Amino acid sequence: MSAKRFVDRLNRLSAGNEVLISAGAGVLIILIAWISTWIATGLPVSLRGFLALHTDYPAIWFADLIPFLMVFITYKLTRHRKEDLEVFNSEIAERDFSREKNVRFAREIGEGNLETQYKLDEGDTLGESLMLMRNNLLANREKESEQNWIAKGKDMVSNILRMHNKIENLSYQVIVNLIRYIRAIQGALYLYDEDREILINVATYAYNRKKFVNQEFRIGQGLIGQCAYERDIIYRTEIPDDYITISSGILGDQKPRSILIVPLISDEKLQGIIEIASLEGEIPDITLKFMRELGEIIARTIFNLRVNQKTERLLLEAQKMTQELKENEEQLRQSAEEMRATQEELQKSNEKLEAQILEVENAQKRLHSLLENASEIIFIYDHNMVMKYVSPSVTKITGYTQSEMMKGKDIDRLTRRGETDLRTMFTELLQNPKEPRSIQYTFMKKDGQKVFIETTGRNLLNDPAIDGIIFNSQDITTRKRAEKEERMKSKMQSLSENSLDMIIRLSTSGQFFYANPVIEDYIGINPKDIMNKSINEINLSEGLFNYFETTIKQVKSSPKKMNSELTLPLMMGEKMSERIMSIDAIPEFNENELETVLFVGHDITEAKRIAREIQDKNKKIEDSINYAERIQKAILPDNKLIREYLPKSFIYYKPRDVVSGDFPWFVSRNDIIHIAAVDCTGHGVPGAMLSFVGYFLLNNIVGLETDLNAAQVIDKLHESVRFTLKQNREGADARDGMDIAFCKISLKKHELHFAGAHRPLYLLRKGELIEHKGDRKAIGGIPLGKKPEENFTNHAIGLQKGDRIFFFSDGITDQLGGPEKKKYSPARVKELI
After folding, report:
1. pLDDT per residue over 403-455, tens digit each?
2. What is the rounded distance in angstroms from the CA atom of residue 780 to the CA atom of residue 735?
3. Whose CA is closest to 472, among 460, 487, 480?
4. Which of 15, 177, 566, 630 could form a disulfide with 78 if both were Cys (CB 3.0 to 4.6 A apart)?
């Protein structure tokens, strides 16, 4: 029996009982009325008395109606209550049905079937709540689905961005996968060239095939240029077939029904434009949202790739510049060495000339001694009479250089007799190797002057140190002079006429006593034509005349050696050029009386030019380094920026050179702070160039992966430095790298992660100094054979109020000072903290 039927039976039984009870109560009331009336009236209890009772007392008739009235009233009340109960049961049934329907609906929602149909009854509050909950779950699921779709698309594009380091390959892969993912039909990517201020098409994709279209747009030109100008998304659906004025880069085989153009902007700078076309009448809002969010990611990656390419180019240029600087330094060093040797030789020549001139005026015996010790030329020939060596003294004696003599000037400038005698002597030396041979012959010098040469030959073919026939040749011209005057002239010629220096002897009154041939290049007059003439009688340049006149007066008033620089005109072939001369004025005495002034002028034009070149190159190098300093200062974090996140912080940064290999680094992402002190190998320009590598690599690592701890960040930095410097290749010899103290600080969690390469972190907490040591290995460097490397250690530190944290490069601890020039040392840093 059902509960409803049971309740109905109970209701029927209860209604019958109530009528019977009501009827019994009415009868009881009649009996009481009758009995009380009989007792009061004294009528007999009989039929006659009953009839008399109703006759004498009509009100008894109303008492007789009471049972009927009570039954009627009870029946009516019972019927009304039954109707109310039926309504109540109907409502209960409806509520049970609604409850069961809501339970089924809730079960469907609980099982995830949110698409089930549900008819909402009027006044069903629970159903309304379930419907609202179902709609919210549907909205959340749709929103979550959209977010998952956007996140999946971002991950897809991010993977592509990480896989490629060439902008061209990256651009094509991005546009292809993006078109397929959003189910468009065409796409193009344009990069912005800041130098030319145009947008260049680098990747185009249409109808599942690669379509290379060489297009360029200026800012403001067409939809592409308009998007670049406004720096906002352009979304077009009104594209009629006959509207051909739209300058879209992808209108090709079939015109689209909707076009979406998205600007790629990073740090408020335009990097490029993405153009998407679809055959659908409208592009979904989720696709618009996805493209907005994706534009910044692609723009940041393109910016980083451009920065990396620029950094790589700058690194190559810096390496090339460094190599050129080394070569220039070596060349300058050699030039300086040659200048020093030339100056020393000139000084020795001057000293020797002074001594020889004084000694010529003494005795013939001293002159003979000087002639015996005169310089000689050493020749070495092989057995075929081919010259193997000639001593450098050949230039001073003959005027020819070593290379000219090696090319045959030793034979070309001889007379026939001299050549015959020389070959005969060579043959005799080969036949009789133990006996030396000597000959004399005439040699024509480079300036056309004939000199007498005496040559002594020895066969040293068996001597491993010589392995040839050696000729010792001496200029014996002075022995051929008969007179003292001729000997003096010959001596002067041997010392000065073959010299490239200008040599002049003037009396204290300005009369020419001697001038070597070089003077003709400066005044245009043969030295023979000016002998015994005064400087007033010769057409000298105003500068040279004033110099002679002023210098003679100064030497007469203060007889000591004087040096001056003078610019003189010089005939170079058919052209006149100015030459800078360094002229020494040397007083000459005879019996302690000033007799003449010897002027020895040395051409220092080339030395001056080299000095100017050195100065110019030094300035260019200094300018380059200063420019590098500006670049380095521009990318380094500013103290004001760091204090915005860490108000009670400081940085002490003082490069030893103009640019530095040590640098601070700082990046903030939401409530996460990354900060480091980096020490690169080397100082100055090399260290600064390596600092650029470390700076941009850290930016890329932290920018792409934000969930890494401190040790994982510098592990990736370690690999990236080796890859960038090609240290992971076989045969690599670049051991450059860097030390680092790296911190990752979570402001929300009050937690610090630290990892170090040769650098520690000091934590001062409640008066106690705690040291967290870094790993004993550097960032970068050549891998050590097959020995596996361990990863860097991550130190997790919970931060407390009042904590103070210090980290630094070795620039502080290795600073030298004090009378003993000792290092400052880590111990003193700890004591200071």
Report:
1. 888 888 788 888 888 888 888 888 888 888 888 888 888 888 888 888 888 88
2. 7
3. 460
4. 15
DSSP string of 32-59, one letter each residue: HHHHHHHHHH---SSHHHHHHHHHH-TH
Q: Which of 738, 712, 742, 748 is closest to 805 using CA atoms?
A: 742
pLDDT digits (tens, 9 = 90+) for 532-564: 888 888 888 888 888 888 998 998 888 888 998
Contact 328, 463 (CB under 8 A): no
- Please tell me the predicted confidence (pLDDT) of residue 764: 95
Query: Would you say 204 and 188 are in contact if contact means Cβ atoms under 8 Å apart?
Result: yes
Instruction: Calculate Rg over the CA atoms of the chain.
Output: 57
Helices (H), strands (E): how many in the chain?
A: 22, 28
CA dihedral 715, 720, 725, 731 (to 10 degrees): 70
Six-digit token string for 123 = 């006044």
| Residues 6+ positions from 614 with CB-CB distance below 8 Å | 332
Burial 186-224 (b: 16+ CB within 10 A, else e): bbbbbbbeeeeebbebbbbbbeeeeeeeebebeeeebbb
Tokens of residue 290, six digits = 């996805």
Question: Which has the closest alpha carbon to 387: 414, 399, 405?
Answer: 405
Whole-Å CA distances, 215 to 188, 240, 247, 257 = 10, 23, 11, 22
Using the structure block, give the residue that is written with the tokens 């290749």.
729
CA nearest to 756, candidates 832, 675, 671: 675
C-alpha closest to that of 379 among 415, 416, 411, 427: 411
Q: What is the structure's pLDDT at 371?
A: 35
Q: How far is CA 715 from CA 177, 345, 784, in A?
A: 31, 61, 16
pTM of the complete model: 0.37
Which residues have a Cβ under 8 Å from the Cβ of 194 and sit 6 or more positions away?
none
pLDDT digits (tens, 9 = 90+) for 37-70: 667 676 666 666 667 666 766 666 666 677 777 7
Cα(442)–Cα(417) distance, integer angstroms: 9
DSSP letters for 802-817: T-EEE---HHHHT-EE
Cα 239 to Cα 731: distance, rounded to the nearest angstrom: 61
Q: Tokens standing for 112? A: 């995830």
Q: Give me the helix-helix angle, 59-110 and 3-41, nearest 10°.
A: 160
Dihedral over alpha carbons 408, 414, 418, 419 (to 10 degrees): 30
Could you give the CA distance from residue 473 to residue 216 in angstroms, rounded to a whole number?
78
What the block records as the tokens of 127 is 């159903």
Cα 740-745-749 angle, rounded to 5 deg: 155
